[in-house]
Fold these 3 entries.
Entry 1:
Amino acid sequence: MVETAVVVEPNGAVLYWHEPRRRTATALPDSRALWLVLWEARERLGGVAHTHPGVGPPHPSAEDLTTFAACEEGLGRRLSWWIATATDCVAFVWVGPGRLDYTPAPAGHTPWLDELRTRSTHSAGGL
Ligand SMILES: [Zn+2]
């Protein structure tokens, strides 16, 4: 489940907060608005972070992986895909050779992390 996502530049600057009104049980939501943000910002994108409920090390869902791959294929470039839980934040990056071969990497500079968690917490549970 995705409560909140954020699109960021390589330096950590926030480009877009993605907080769809209607939460879904999908991974990164199939959102035209989000896709348009990614496309418009494709030259300066660092990646996309989203939240998972609970605590502990995050793991991308099968749908997360196919979404990562589809976005990168559409954009023609690789990104970092952070997933944050209440206690951890991990960046997933493509390593190949398979289409869905993403591996955990250090989260790096994540100045948006606290706000992502706050927005996620504040928006959770309200259908
Ligand atoms: Zn996810």
Note: Strands lie at 5-8, 14-18, 47-51, 80-84, 89-94, 102-105.
Entry 2:
Amino acid sequence: MNRIGIVGMGFMGQQHFAIYQGLDNVEVVAVCDKNPTKIAEAAPSIGGNIGEATELDLSAQARYVCFDDMLAKEELDCVDVCVPTHLHAELAVAALEAGCHVISEKPMARTLEDCDHMIAVAEATARMLFIAQCIRFWPEYEALADMLSSGELGRLATAKFTRQSPPPTWAEDGWLLDPGLSGGAMLDLHIHDVDFILSALGKPPAVLSQAANLFSEGNKVDHVVTSYLYDDFVCVAEGGWAMPGAFPFEMGFQVLGEKGVLDFSLAKQPMLTFYPSDGEPYSPEVAAGTGYERELAYFVECMENDQPPERVTAQSARESVAVVMAEQQSAQTGEVVELD
Ligand SMILES: NC(=O)c1ccc[n+]([C@@H]2O[C@H](COP(=O)([O-])OP(=O)(O)OC[C@H]3O[C@@H](n4cnc5c(N)ncnc54)[C@H](O)[C@@H]3O)[C@@H](O)[C@H]2O)c1
């Protein structure tokens, strides 16, 4: 049985907590949040952009307001880091140095220096470091990745990804809306598509981004459109959280190859449809569950089998942060930015 402590019991910490209850080989033995109301025995639920808000019963867990206390007093196999992004590195490193495996929410960290520090400490301590890039595990995106790798779409022509939402107002002290802490919509939300694009299509030679702000100060980070300048197909992603409050969260893609187009949108019914160049459209079978459930189940299995997580290496999660940084540079300068 893998003993887990979750730090940060906001939107994502609560989602993770609820998912672990349904998994084998894992037990959440402790939870920590600096805000005591979030770890009350019956903790109020928090809504976010996706997933159910659920009432939590934390009566069976040890509950801490101080992370160092949780690390010192509990015998944990793994710490699940669900705190604001600018704190990922500090808490992940402390957990690794205490001998725990770490699962950390995406984006890996607020800066590349922090990403590198996390990777170095994971290597030095020989502990697993898994970054929760959930879209790689999201069933419809897995279906797309499978079609791309099997050649079912044929030669690729265009790939278009979108992710848009109202501002994330649930965050503790409004940290998500402070680009200095979260990196804005580009690093927090749009990175999901960046990470998927890199994992499924490989790294493009360069990016060209345009971005806009509606409420953030300074660098434009609220809404971005990026062209990934591959040599042989067109790839674009649009992402942002500047939509009005009533706008429903949307994620989707349209990927067109010579054998057809795979179309996915949360707003459509059915959500996933393949329109072949020849023949009738149909909805491909997808795995059950959400990307959140599937990524946590995967990492628990990695711990159980003592196998480093190959589906998301820490280095690949760092690469996604690096590409977002290149996009920010492009958006500020108006120039194409080459990727090394
Ligand atoms: N995978 C996804 O789709 C997804 C969705 C939303 C958020 N996230 C990521 O999850 C992380 C958390 O985001 P959230 O939306 O849950 O934010 P949140 O504000 O709802 O939750 C963060 C929690 O951390 C607590 N906290 C802050 N500092 C702490 C400390 N030093 N010690 C203990 N607790 C502390 C806060 O009190 C708060 O309850 C972020 O990195 C975010 O990017 C991922």
Note: The chain has two domains: 2-134, 135-293+320-338.
Entry 3:
Amino acid sequence: MRPLLLGVPWDAHSSFARGPALAPPAIRAALHSPSSNSAAEDEQDAVGVIEDRGDLALHDVTDVAAAIEAGAGEVVAAGGLPIFLGGDHAVTPPLVRAMHAQHGPLTILHIDAHPDLYDELDGNRASHACPFARILEAGLATRLVQVGIRTMNAHQRAQATRFGVETIPMHAGFAAALAAVRTLAGPLYVSLDLDAMDPSAVPGINHPEPGGFTVREVISLLGAIPPRALRGADVVELNPLHDWRDFTARVAAKLVKELVRVGRA
Ligand SMILES: [Mn+2]
């Protein structure tokens, strides 16, 4: 599938620090940096086959979520494999609404340190801590599998039970996460929060949570997605203001290339 890249520069619902709205250009710069080449690990060109649709213009928009859904909808309707660059995790519900309009109920693989299942955080139901509560309430996904999780609490555990979320905690081990990914069937959407990885690998994030995946483990998880299941993905929560020598942007770009690889498997 032809990969389509769309930037979603929005972080108004970040609970702790702003910055992810600056991420799409940083990830693009890393994708095109001469410090690496354009191949994914299948030895095929990944960067050169991407059709870049630029960034959504969200500055003077009143209803940003509706604008994201509409803008993403155009990309999704074009066919191919949409890869969305956040933004914080609050971009995911409108992106999933656009995916659902095209594909119907989705299976979602959510890779994150955090369950993001809060009913509300600080009185905000659109918070970047709430996206999967909104998605499941709306019936947009029939199955949500979460891996990398290491911040579960009582409220979010209750939400996970209420919605039937399959949470594979980090302490269950990498093999358990890999086994869960192998059971996924399409139409599959991957929502990838960079903070799923250990903060030592991704300094440029807002909520560093020690004890995460290595970059290699996340590449292996993506590689375990069954063939022809993947329909779209987002990569969210890069904060270039916290990054160090673009390390985190490079990780994001690497994972975009591997998503391209999975999309053509
Ligand atoms: Mn997170």
Note: Residues 247-264 form the longest helix (18 residues).
